[in-house]
Amino acid sequence: MSGHLSHPAGAEPLVRIARREGVGFWQKVLVRAAAVLLALVVDALFLFFVTGLNPLRVYGVMWGGTFANFTRFSWMLRDLSSLLCVGIALAPAFKMRFWNVGGEGQILIGGLVAALVMVQLGSSLPAPLLILAMGLGAVAAGALWGFVPAWFKARWNTNETLFTLMMNYVATSIVACAVNIMRGKNSALGTLNRASRAGWFPAIFGQRYTINIIVVLVLTFAMYAYLRWSKHGYEISVVGESENTARYAGINVRKVMLRTMLLSGGICGLCGFMLVAGRDQTISTATAGGRGFTAIIVAWLAKFNTFYMALISFLLVFLERGASEIASAYSLNEYGADIITGVILFFILGSEFFINYRLIIRGIHKEGR
Amino acid sequence: MNSSLVAWILRAVPFGTIIMYGAMGEILTEKSGNLNLGVPGIMYLGGFAGFASAYYYEKLAPHPNAVLCVLLSLLCALAASMLGGLIYAFLTVTLRANQNVTGLALTTFGMGVANFFGVYILNGATYSAAPLANKAYAAKLPVLSGLGTVGQVVFGYGFLVYAAIVIAVALHWFLTRTRAGLALRAVGENPATADAAGVNVTRHKYLATSIGAGLCGVGGLYYVLDYNQGIWSTTGQMEALGWLAVALVIFTTWKPLNAIWGAYLFGMLYWLYQFLPSILGLSISSAMTELVQMVPYVVTILVLIAVSLRRKKEDQPPAHLGLAYFREER
Amino acid sequence: MPKRQPAIRLEHITKTFGSVVANRDISMEVDRGEILALLGENGSGKTTLMNMIAGIYYPDEGHIFLDGEPVDIRSPRDALAHGVGMIHQHFKLVDVFSAAENIALAMGEDEKFDLRRVRQQARAICEKYDFALDLEQKVYEMSVSQKQTLEIVKVLYRGADILILDEPTAVLTPQEAERLFVVLRNMRADGKAIIIITHKLHEVLAISDRVAILRKGEYVGDVATKDATESALTEMMVGEKVALDIRRTPPKDPVCRLRVRDLTVPGPEGVPLLQNASFEAYGGEILGIAGISGNGQRELLESIAGLQAPAPGARIEYFPPDGGDTPVELLGKSPRAIREAGIHLSFVPEDRLGMGLVGSMGMTDNMMLKSYGAGASPLVDRRAPHELAEEVRASLGVVTPGLETPVSQLSGGNVQKVLVGRELAADPVVLMTAYAVRGLDINTSYTIYRLLDEQKQRGVAVLYVGEELDVLLELCDRILVLCGGRVNGILDARTATKEEIGLRMTRLVEGEAKA
Fold first, then answer.
1. Residues 147-206 of chain C whose Cβ lies under 8 A from any Cβ of chain B
2. Please, what are the averages of pLDDT over each run of 10 residues along chain A (369 residues)?
3. What's the domain range around A190?
4. I want to staple C273 with a disulfide (CB 3.0 to 4.6 A). Which of A21, A100, B144, C267 is the partner?
5. Helices of type H across chain B
6. pTM score of the predicted model
7. How many A×B Cβ pairs under 8 Å?
8. Are C310 and C436 part of one and the same domain?
C-alpha cells in the first residue's frame, strides 16, 4: 500500500469495503442462488474441459441420480437423513460457539456400541428391547465422547476445536481394534447377525432406513423448537454470544456447556446407531464417512436453522448422488463429487461476503446515500 | 544398538518428516492468524501434483533426467498446494468467510481433486509408480550413510528429510529475528495493531497462508515420492497425516524448532505398535496394534490440556487465530 | 518569508458508516507548536475524524493537506510516512511482544532491522523527554500508564511531528495526567503539532492553546483557550444552553439495606483487587463510589451481584424491606440464587453489550435475560417480555427500528436505556450502576440522573460508581472513595470538596482506611 503515496489528492482507492446492514430476505436468497448458479457454471466448465462431455447432459444425468425413479429418490432421502442428523446434532454446539469438530468420532463410537450390543445381546433379548438397548448405549457413548472435551473446555478453557478433532482418531482406533477382534479369523467383518437379523430395524415401505428418515424428520422439528422456544435454547444463545452476559444473567455456563455437548454428542451417537441398525448392519472405520465434517458446513451455512440445514443437506446429497450417477454412466470416478461439492461450498462461503458487506467503487458511491 | 530400534528410527524419521512439513506450513499459516483446517486437502494437492508431473515426465521424456524430475515435481507440488492456500486466503481474508468451514471445504476439495485425477493415472490398476523420481528423492548420502549403524540412522534418508530440518531452523530465525517475521507475528496476535504500525495485514496473511500451504504440499510430495516409494494409490492415509500435522502444531506450541523433535517423536509413537513389542520381547495381538495407533492423538490431547493448564502467555496460540480482520469494523 | 502553512488542513471531510453520518463537511487546521483540543460529546465524530488523518478510515469526501500539500492517506503506514502518529484510546500494542519489539514493529521500511539499534534510539528518546520505560518488559506485564508511555515513544521513534492523542487521560491518575501534560508541553516547545481529543473541560483549559468543537459530526467552530470558559464550551458542545444542575432530593428515612464487612477480592498476582472493604448502603439515598478506574469498583459491585468469588471471611448482608432486622447473607450466592431468594438486586454493569445485554438479540429477548427461567415450563414465555419491551421503549424513548432489531445496532444511549429500563422494571430494593452515563450525550445523561433520583425517592438504595467528581458531588448523598482496592473514607457529598476526593483517590489516608 505504501506505493500509493504519490497519488494526486482525491484519488481514493478503486474499491473500498463497507459493512452492510439490514439486508432483506429475498436479497439474501438471491445472492445465495446466484452463488450456487455460478458454481454450477464453473463446475460445468470443469466437466467440459476435463472430460469433454456436454455439461448440460451431464447435469441431466446428475438430476437422474436423485429423481430417476423412486428407489433413487429414497436413497437420496436415506443419505440426506444421515447428513442432516449430524447437522442437527452439531447445531446446538455451534450456536453455543463450541466448535465440535468431533462429530465423526461421536458417530463412530455410537455406532460401535450399537454393533457390540447387537452382537453380544442379539440372541438373549427380544427385538424391541435389543433395539432400545442399542440406541441407549449408542447415545450414551456419543454423549460421553462429546462430554470429555466439553468438560476440559468448561474447566480450563482447553481448545475444543483441536480436542474434538483428536477425539475422532481415538474413536477410529478403537473401532479398528474392535472390528479386528469381532471379525476373528475372517478377512472382513461382514453383515452382523446375518441369520437372526437381531437388532436390525424392521423394513417399512420395503426399506430398513425408513425409520432413520422418520426419526430425523422428527428431530428436525424438535431441534428447531428446542433452539428457538425452549429455555435451554435461550441459554445456548446467550452463552454463545457472551459468557460474561450469561454469568450476569445467572446462567451456569459450565452446566450449559456440558449439557449441550452431551446432547450434541448423544445425537451423533444416535446417528451412529441408525447407520448400524437401519442402513449398514455392520460397523467399520468408514461408517461415519466424513459426515462429521460435512455436517459442520451444513450447520454453519444454515445459521443453525434446521430447515435450512435440510435444504443444504439436500443440495450436497443431490450432488453426491448425481456424481456417482455420472461416474457409472460415463465410467468416470466418484471423486468428482468432492470437487463439485468443494466448488459449490467455496462459492456459497464466498457469497456471504456480499450479504454482509458492500463494495464501493470509485466515483459511483454517492448514489448510495 | 538393537536392530529393532534402528529399524524403528528408520521408519519414524521419514514418517515424522511428512508431518513436519505439514506442521511447519501450518505454523507459518497460523502465525498470520489463519487457522487452516485444509491441511489434509493441501497435502493431497501437493502430493498428487508432484507425483503426476514426475509420472508423466518419466513416461513421456525419452531420456528422463533425475535432477529435472525432482525439480519439476517439486515445482508442480508447490504450485498446486499454494493454489489451494490461495483459495483459502481469498475466501477467508478478502471475503472474510469463516476459517474453520472454509478449511474443511478445502480438505474435501483437495482430496477430491487428487483422487479424481489420480484415477486417470491409475487407469484401472490399484497403483501406479514413478520409480525414477522415487530413486532421486530417496537417494541417501553416498558415503556417510555407509558408516555403520550411526551412519545409517543419521544419514540414511532422502534429501527432503534434511531440508525439513534446515527449513525449521530458518523458520525459527525468520519468526524471531527478522522484521517480516515480527510483522507476521503481530498480524496473528493483533492485526489492528499491526495495521496501525503500517504492516500490510492482507499481504502478510496471503503470503503466509500460501507459502505455508506450499510447505504442506511438500509434505504430501514427500509422502508419495519417498515415504510411499513413489507409488500413487487411492487411499485415505494422507488425510490422517494431515490432521496429525495439525496436532503437531499444537504439540510444538507454535514453535518451529519444537517441530523437529516433535515430528520424530510422533513418528516413533506412530510406529510404536510395530517395534516396541519386539524390543520388549512381547507378542501382541494384531487387534491391539490398532489401539496403539491412537497414541500420537492421545499425546496431543494431553499436551493441549497441559497448555491450557499452564496458561503461559508464550505458549498460547496467536491471539487472533481464527478471526477475520476488517479495519473499519466499529 | 513564505506564507506559513498549517501542519494539517482538512477541507470538507465527510464520512458515513452505513446510514450514520459520522462526519459532515468538516474543515479545520492545526499549526506547528500548537496544542489543539478537539472537544465534543461522545458520538460527535472526534475519533472518526482523527482516524482519517491516521489512515484507519478513508474519507468518503474531502481532502487532507499536510504542510499545504494535498496528501492521500490510505493506511497508517502512509500516515506515519507523513509524520502523523496517533495514540489510540485502545492501545495498539502486541501483548506478547517486548517494548522494544513493539517499537521495532512500527519501524520504517527503509531502516535496517536491528533490535539493538532500536533499543539505543528508544533509550535516547526516553532520556530526552524523561520517560521511565523498560524496553525488555513484555506488554502484558505493563501498567496502563506504562503502555501509554510506550505508545508515545513508539510514534516519536518513527519521527512523528504531528501527534494525535485520543482521550489520553481517561485511564491515568491525576499525577500521571500531569506528567503527560509536561511531556506534551515539551513536545510543543519542540515545534510539534499536537491534537488531543477529550471531553473533559478542565483538561482542555489546562493544556490546550486552542479548542475546536464538534457536535453531531459537524464542525461548530474554534476558540482560543484563553478566551474560553467552561460554560461557553459546553454550550458549543451541546448546541443549547444546558442547565448543569442535577436534582438531588433529600434522603427519605434511610434504612440500612446492605451491610458489607471485610470484603476482599484476591487478584491474579497475589495483590488483592479489593481489600477489607466495609460500608453500609441505605434505602432512600444514593451512595456514590469514586476512584480512578480499576481501583476495585468493579470487584466491589460484582462481588455483591454474585459474579466474583471474594476471599472467605467477608459478609455481605441484605436487609429485606419486610424482614425486620434479620439480614440475608449474599456471599456465596450465585446471581440466580440471589434472585431465587426473592432479593431485588438490580445491576447496570459497565460493559453494557458484553455483560448487561446480548448484542445480537432484540429488545424483547433482552428483557427476559434475567427472568426467562421463571415457571416450570421448559419453554420460554415471550409475551411478558414483549410487553415490557414496548413499555420501556415508550417510557424511556428508546429509538429502535423494531423490538426484534439486535440491540448492538442501536446507538450507545439507546443501548443504555434498554439496560437501565430492564433493571428498573425489576422493582429493585438495591440498585447498582457502574459508569451509567459513560459515552452518553448530555441529555441522556440527565435522563439517567433523574431516573436514579426517582429510584431514591422510592426508597431504593442506589450505588452509583462514577468518574466525574462534579456529578458525584451533585447527585449523591454520601461518597465512598476507593484507592488501590481499599475504602479510603466515606464523605458527606453535601460538604465534601472535589480536591478532598481527588486526594483520597490517589493517596491512602492513614488511620481512616478502615472506616
1. 154
2. 35 66 79 88 82 81 85 90 95 93 94 93 87 95 96 90 90 91 81 82 84 93 95 94 91 94 96 92 87 89 91 88 80 78 88 82 47
3. 80-296
4. C267
5. 3-31, 39-60, 66-89, 99-122, 131-138, 148-155, 159-177, 179-189, 191-196, 201-222, 237-251, 256-280, 286-292, 295-310
6. 0.84
7. 157
8. yes
